[in-house]
Specification:
Blueprint: H1 5-18, E1 26-42, E2 45-63, E3 66-73, H2 78-96, E4 113-118, H3 125-135, E5 140-156, E6 161-176, E7 182-189, H4 194-211, E8 221-227, H5 229-240, H6 246-250, H7 257-261, E9 272-274, E10 294-298, E11 301-302, H8 309-315, E12 330-333, H9 343-347, E13 350-353, E14 357-363, E15 368-372, E16 377-381, E17 384-388, E18 393-397, H10 398-404, E19 406-409, E20 414-417, E21 429-432, E22 435-442
InterPro entries: Metalloprtase-TldD/E_C, TldD/PmbA_sf
Organism: Pseudomonas weihenstephanensis
Domain Metalloprotease TldD/E C-terminal: 220-439
Length: 444
């Protein structure tokens, strides 16, 4: 294992724990740490800049098909942390004494070792501040930067040991017009690249200029449309919550049930896979399962599902290392052949939709989605942006959006990493193209 201090601390804890076990006990240990820097911007000025050093540990004790879990925050002091771990171990032993056996407990007891460091560059926070403030000079810019290195570790008493470290940067920001309308943009990359960021700022400035044109109102109906990668990311992200889940399919709760049964299909242009082998997340999960790449949709047809160990035990399947919720963590949608710089000409007359918002199901069993256009949606005529439109609600099925109405996918893709910082920074990522549609249904 490498020589970083977090790796050494994790190794010391799991070695200490091994010597505390009773003969009939086993453990799993999940380690999560981050050394992050956050900067909050408002009116293109720094309002907060602060570091976060956080170390968490989740211990699961197993005995006679009974198991219980204890979560604790560590101090980065080995002696104090071992004391905490000893107290947690005693509490878990007391809990196991009154728990029933778990019929769906399926443990991977194989011995394995996996170490992975995803290289990247997180700049000094002073550099981030200087560059972002320069790029947003003269603008009403609101945003938050999060960057730094994330660490994950796993060990169990049968001998598995995994370690993962990755650097990442995200800047999630909006440029506001005096009318209150905004252009929302996100930048994500393992390597901070000011040239790529400059390009995104230039594109956002151009959209902001279009927002200053008086808005037009559209009547409900079907419109030719282009979904930018951020808009398509919202749709696929909505489907990811249970849509590809083995449990969801087994209980007929998946929004893609009709795709699985063959009643519906998507366009042959649609190819989606979960590919943790090339992502930012570790190649093991908090249960100790080695994750696998899974082709989920090929040529518009469902070919795979995400299976965790509990679903494998309950439904007689083979686990492919999916997480507890069976959601994709490194989802990639294959590109098409439409160049980005030809999108407006290919659209001709219709809607250019930068983002979608407030998505939900209007009919989950039919994969029917509804949401709002919001954030820089424009009316386009003859390949030229004419004006922004009043916020509209769409309501349409996935089988129209990525099925019968899908004309093309863009050649270029955009990377989206989660900007969630609730409790901790996460490492999931989606890679999305844009999508040209012959029709999208607006309802009000």
């Amino acid at each position: 294992m490498n020589d970083c201090r977090f790796a050494h601390a994790f190794t010391a804890l799991q070695q200490w724990l091994k010597h505390q076990l009773h003969a009939d006990e086993h453990f799993t240990l999940w380690y999560s740490a981050e050394d992050s820097q956050f900067v909050r911007f408002n009116h293109a000025k720094v309002r907060q800049a602060y570091p976060v050093l956080q170390i968490e540990l989740t211990l699961r004790l197993i005995r006679d098909e009974r198991h219980s879990t204890y979560h604790l925050n560590l101090t980065d002091d080995e002696q104090l942390d071992c004391q905490q771990l000893a107290q947690a171990l005693e509490q878990l032993r007391a809990t196991l004494a009154v728990l029933p056996a778990d019929p769906y407990l399926l443990l991977d007891t194989d011995t394995w070792t996996d170490e992975r460091v995803v290289s990247g560059r997180t700049p000094p926070v002073s550099e981030v501040i200087r560059q972002v403030c320069s790029l947003s000079e003269g603008l009403d810019m609101v945003g938050i930067y999060a960057g730094g290195t994330l660490y994950r570790g796993f060990a169990h008493s049968w001998g598995a040991l995994g370690w993962h470290a990755c650097s990442s940067n995200t800047l999630d920001w909006s440029l506001f017009d005096v009318s209150g309308e905004a252009v929302k943009t996100a930048y994500a990359a393992p390597d901070w690249n000011v040239q790529a960021l400059s390009t995104l700022f230039a594109q956002a400035r151009e959209k902001l200029e279009h927002l200053r044109t008086p808005r037009i109102s559209l009547t409900p109906g079907q419109y030719r449309a282009y979904l930018a990668p951020a808009a398509l990311d919202e749709i696929i992200g909505m489907l990811s919550y249970g849509g590809f889940s083995a449990k969801g399919f087994a209980t007929h709760q998946s929004a893609l049930q009709q795709l699985k049964s063959g009643v519906q299909q998507l366009s042959p242009l649609v190819n989606i896979r979960n590919q943790p082998s090339t992502g930012l997340e570790p190649r093991f999960d908090r249960e100790g399962n080695l994750t696998q790449d899974v082709a989920l949709i090929e040529d518009g047809k469902l070919t795979g599902q995400l299976i965790n160990t509990r679903s494998a035990a309950e439904y007689g399947l083979t686990s492919n290392g999916a997480n507890t919720h069976e959601t994709p963590s490194s989802l990639i949608m294959e590109p098409g052949d439409l160049p980005d710089d030809e999108v407006l000409n290919a659209l001709g007359t219709g809607l250019y939709i930068s983002n979608l918002w407030y998505l939900n199901y209007s009919d989950q069993s039919a994969a029917r989605l509804t949401g709002m256009t919001r954030f820089a949606t424009f009316w386009v005529e003859n390949g030229k942006i004419v004006a922004p439109i009043e916020t509209m609600r769409f309501d349409d099925t996935l089988y129209n959006i990525l099925g019968s109405n899908l004309l093309a996918l863009t050649r270029e893709q955009a990377l989206f990493t989660t900007t969630s910082t609730y409790e901790r920074r996460e490492v999931s990522r989606y890679v999305m193209p844009g999508a040209l549609l012959s029709a999208l249904t607006l309802t009000l």
